[in-house]
């Protein structure tokens, strides 16, 4: 298990308006052919209210290992 913490998403702190989204690419090194990842982003609303945006668990796999 490895935990990653830091300010921003790959160095960015985007300001999102209602209905907007932000997309980025990242990577992870794992020691097995299949693994999982999950987590959350800590967000701050324009009024200063803090909230968590959950990231549901998803599978990481080496190409062609699962299908």
Figure out the total of helices.
0
Question: Order of strands across the widest beta sheet?
Answer: 1-2
**How far is the first residue's CA from the last residue's CA?**
25 Å
What fraction, in percent, of the residue positions are helical? under 10%
What does this structure look like?
This protein has 67 residues and is mostly beta strands. The protein has a domain at 35-67. Helix content is 0%, strand content 34%. It contains no helices and two strands. Strands 1-2 form a two-stranded antiparallel sheet. The radius of gyration is 15 Å and the shape is elongated. The protein starts with 33 loop residues before the first strand and ends in a 6-residue tail after the last strand. The model has no long low-confidence stretch (mean pLDDT 86).
Characteristic key phrases:
67 residues, two-stranded antiparallel sheet, mainly beta
Topology:
Blueprint: E1 34-44, E2 50-61
Antiparallel strand pairs: 1-2
Could you give a short description of this structure?
This protein has 67 residues and is mainly beta. Helices cover 0% and strands 34% of the residues.
């Amino acid at each position: 298990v490895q935990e990653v913490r830091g300010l921003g998403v790959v160095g960015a702190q985007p300001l999102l308006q209602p209905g907007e989204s932000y997309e980025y690419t990242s990577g992870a090194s794992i020691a097995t052919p299949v693994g999982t990842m999950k987590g959350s982003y800590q967000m701050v609303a324009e009024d200063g209210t803090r909230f968590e945006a959950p990231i549901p668990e998803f599978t990481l796999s080496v190409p062609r290992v699962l299908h």
